[in-house]
């Protein structure tokens, strides 16, 4: 099964590069930097680069040696909306987020490691490039370890710093 997913990932990369090559031929566009579709960010940071799927995010994390930050949220959840707003408006977080592979999900994956203590939203988990879920990087609530409220935004920021620091000491 592993070979198959690598193969499809490889084919996907070829397909992407074909599309990019085709676009490069067009000289008449005024916009030099291609605008990323806002849909992938879902409002968590429109200028950041977001991955589309969990599989792609793992692949990119492993190959770039950057940690992965996964945000589980729901569009119609007021807690998710409130956290998204402070996350998107927090300049330092948006800057630091560039050092991560980023993924936000409005659905659950089949990977049980992403819900160590339940499938609630919003919850934010970090995964290191060895593809280990960092269950040790938690928020302040003992009943929902990976939940963050808008008032916890500075804790989330320091957890992001922690995820990057762990990387340096362990690799």
Could you name the key traits of this structure?
171 residues; mainly alpha; Glutaredoxin; 3 strands; 9% strand
Describe the structure.
With 171 residues, the protein is mainly alpha-helical. It has a domain at 54-164: 3-Layer(aba) Sandwich (Glutaredoxin). Helix content is 41%, strand content 9%. The chain contains five helices and three strands, in the order ααβααββα. The chain has helices spanning 2-24, 54-64, 78-89, 91-96, 153-170, and strands at 68-72, 101-105, 123-127. It starts with a helix and ends with a helix. Residues 1-21 form the signal peptide. InterPro entries: AGR/TXD, Thioredoxin-like_sf. Belongs to the AGR family.
Give a summary of the structure in a few sentences.
With 171 residues, this protein is mostly helical.
Q: Which stretches of 5+ consecutive residues score pLDDT under 50?
A: 21-31
Q: Radius of gyration, rounded? A: 17 Å
The percentage helix is 40-55%
* Average pLDDT level: 85
In the CATH hierarchy, the third-tier topology of the domain at 54-164 is known as Glutaredoxin
Through-space gap between termini: 28 Å
SSE sequence, one letter per element? HHEHHEEH
Number of E-state strands: 3
Q: What strand order characterises the main sheet?
A: 2-1-3
**Name of the CATH superfamily of the domain at 54-164:** Glutaredoxin
Largest sheet: 3 strands, mixed
What amount of the residues lies in strands?
A: 5-15%
Counted by DSSP, the helix tally is 5
Please report the first level of CATH classification, the CATH class of the domain at 54-164.
Alpha Beta
CATH architecture of the domain at 54-164: 3-Layer(aba) Sandwich
Please state the structural category: mainly alpha
Shape: globular
